[in-house]
Fold:
Amino acid sequence: MIRSTMQRVPLSINSLVERAGKLFPQVEIVSRLPDKSLRRHTFADFRRRTRQLAAALLAAGLKKGDRVATLCWNHHAHLECYFGIPAAGGVMHTLNLRLAPDEISWIAEHAQDRFLIVDDILLPLFRQLKVGFEKVIVVPFSGAPVDSAFLNYEEFIQKSAEAFSYVPHEEDDPISMCYTSGTTGRPKGVVYSHRSTIIHTLMANQPDYWGLAAGDSVCPVTPMFHANCWGIPYGCVMMGIKLVFPGPHLHPEDLLALFQAEKPNFVLGVPTIWLAMLQLLENDPARYKLHAGMKMLVGGAAVPESLIRSFAKLGAEIRQGWGMTETSPVASIAYLKPELRDVAEDERYRRFASAGVPVPVMDLRLIDENGKECEWDGASVGELQVRGPFITGSYHNVPQEPERFTDDGWLRTGDVASIDAHGYIRITDRTKDLIKSGGEWISSVDMENLLMAHPAVLEAAVIAIPDPKWTERPLACVVFKLNKKTTPEELRAHLSSHFAKWQLPDRFEFLDAIPRTATGKFWKLKLRERFRPAAAEKN
Amino acid sequence: MIRSTMQRVPLSINSLVERAGKLFPQVEIVSRLPDKSLRRHTFADFRRRTRQLAAALLAAGLKKGDRVATLCWNHHAHLECYFGIPAAGGVMHTLNLRLAPDEISWIAEHAQDRFLIVDDILLPLFRQLKVGFEKVIVVPFSGAPVDSAFLNYEEFIQKSAEAFSYVPHEEDDPISMCYTSGTTGRPKGVVYSHRSTIIHTLMANQPDYWGLAAGDSVCPVTPMFHANCWGIPYGCVMMGIKLVFPGPHLHPEDLLALFQAEKPNFVLGVPTIWLAMLQLLENDPARYKLHAGMKMLVGGAAVPESLIRSFAKLGAEIRQGWGMTETSPVASIAYLKPELRDVAEDERYRRFASAGVPVPVMDLRLIDENGKECEWDGASVGELQVRGPFITGSYHNVPQEPERFTDDGWLRTGDVASIDAHGYIRITDRTKDLIKSGGEWISSVDMENLLMAHPAVLEAAVIAIPDPKWTERPLACVVFKLNKKTTPEELRAHLSSHFAKWQLPDRFEFLDAIPRTATGKFWKLKLRERFRPAAAEKN
Structure:
């Protein structure tokens, strides 16, 4: 039997650290501190400090596979954790600082986190946690002295020996973990490996996707605890791309000031951030400006077409797609395929606002209610299922749940979609958010997008309300823009351009805000709790 | 112990075929036929025909791991072999049609090729082979009837059943093999796997390297038997990129006509092709034109800086690097790092003409005569050694040669180089081509490049001649441009701008052509045979 002659060298993120330090020693990593000043490091510093962190963790007794939690904003030290914890053989577990203290405690307990690295300005949150860590290492982010009850991150890494050897590993060994922010049920842990991370990074930085290249400069507004910041930190270290971290300052004014100062040409974040920034840019165009050619990677929740159009008018290109913590997360990207180059603007934007086209080195299928594969005809609707080397096949330390995985090993994403003949995915709903009225499905996502295209509407969320005659009926929750207002009648008329009469909501609720999950998604569970009869809650 | 939750799905080129057929059904694959007409297929055709080829091979008795040789020009059917043979569990072995029949026979015998797929126009070469194949499948490339002694490729694949299932495989299973065109010794086989090919393709198509994106159109002049056409066919199928195959018509006039007709914006080939094309473009600018913005990937031999500058004047960007059959082949690429954006033109071109910067997901080191790692200071010279998942760790079916691999498993490339502080590699020589004079090294490659920058010089090759006093002395073999001429004195004066007096060649030989290997490299062995005393040959 013939065998491949190729070397069996394990894929490893460690080699990225060495390469970045040697090839890109001058490229900058800029962090905004709590006092809004900027701290500057280089990739040479990054390599040195990452190795120091790894050496210090080993000296502190870290054993292979031990979890080291982080409770941090986006900054240079968090990037060092991304690589330094795995360099020591540990598993970085990013804790979501937007969750309730009890939930963080539950997650840290479930993951059996041994050490914690925490920002000094997050110590008030830390003190509310009901979980013990063997060592607590505090990043002196604000510059204030660190309480002697804790280890000071800077002293901790300075003390480590010069010599450091990466802890040997196999490519399937874990490097990081992240808990999904399930809108129902307990959070579940996804554990990434060297292998999944390298393959995902190489794939996601293809020219049609992230497309990060020499001279680019990236500002990740997406939290580093949110699906590994979508994998962007790995891509930047791999290709030697400047990073501009916003620290805790995520208000649009702060971000615009940072963009002005450091001129990133690639930014990423959830739609909420950019919706708020857009209001600022539109309301005070004399004061605030985006520099032209900005690329914006937007995700974590559906991106309204109106947002893409509005930013395009300002010279910025929104690129978005679809993915989940379980998919590393990039699973599809909405770029313009060559056959659609000459289509009319409306059709082009429709594609840009779709969930995009499935990426390679991963398989994706659409399965209908009867377990059959759907046609890619833009009409047939089914559940998205995915399989591949950067897709989770289980959750950490829970019994395998058959409703999350198929018998043949595919992940059931819980997202319901259609795919058109060109391969563009349109998410119509979460399985739990579907509205079935009179035996027909109504897409809450399509309805939300159309509502948000109305000039008076800032945000809209549509939920199903039980109905004795129709099974379910849609209810639309709407938030107005500042100083704007409209009526249910006008909104129904607006919707009737794309929806049949029987599909239109009977009921509108005008709210001050749509409740959101910790990662910025509409929290429909909360809306259902509020507006449905208690007994009718879907579970 | 914590484990990664990621799915353990094998990397596979099969998934690229399915994805291309489904996502890019309309993207074209254009082939130039022997009569210079064009045949058009689409990626939908490609998927169907590739599956048909695989089904036909299975029906013909192909077993897992069996070698199927190809003896073909660049065209659609050769692309079908790239994917169809592995789809059936076979290993595609591309035979180099430029080798002598005896050498091809030796290689096919050594690889134990079971079936052969051959172009009808190459049957005269096939008939000179002294090796038996169980089945010979003839591509009716010219359109002439196929001799009934053979199978007709079109009939062979048409007969296959509709239903086809990919033969299951592990990711380390072999998919293709290629023999190195060693300038000394017997050719040696490198065997690639699904894994090495997927990782190499994802890596090589990063934005700073190939950078192939939606709407691009690629013309591979590089033969498909030359290190898998540098991996480009895999990249095009992965990203849905139009392919324009030149068939057997590689003369610059033919290529320019094809470029005019099909407008590829990305072409690839060895320097010889572009040197000849440049003469045409410069001598008759009214008749021949490149369209602006053309990207040219040039490799297989050192690329003179003068070639890069000349094409830049014509609006084309040459991108080149360094690699070998053993490295899949992309190991370094000369792109402009961000810190060099503002350097003077001369310095910029010096980088563009270097072997470039090592790619990620691979380790590269420079080892001196004493086995120590060299500094990256642009001066220290050592052998390039590489390690990684797309680097060969052995050769097919030969005893492991310690002079080709280090004890710790790195490939010894045999290329001697320096690396500057920015990471740019400068190949100074093959280990066998080094010139050691008076205890000091002279770089034959640097001297060749400078000679080729002289307005009268088309090609130059510098070899070492034994010398009783200095150990060795350089001898320069020079080919003049059409209707141009110069003298040894003038060339010595030209060289003295960059070389010390003692380094200048004592002897010049003016030739009609530099002998070349089958893949277009200067064949210095032939020059040494001719100009050195017989007893002094290095081996």
Notes: The domain at 434-536 of chain A is CATH 3.30.300.30 (GMP Synthetase; Chain A, domain 3). Residues 535-539 of chain A have pLDDT under 50 and may be disordered. Chain A touches chain B through 77 residues (CB under 8 Å). The first helix of chain A runs from residue 14 to 23.
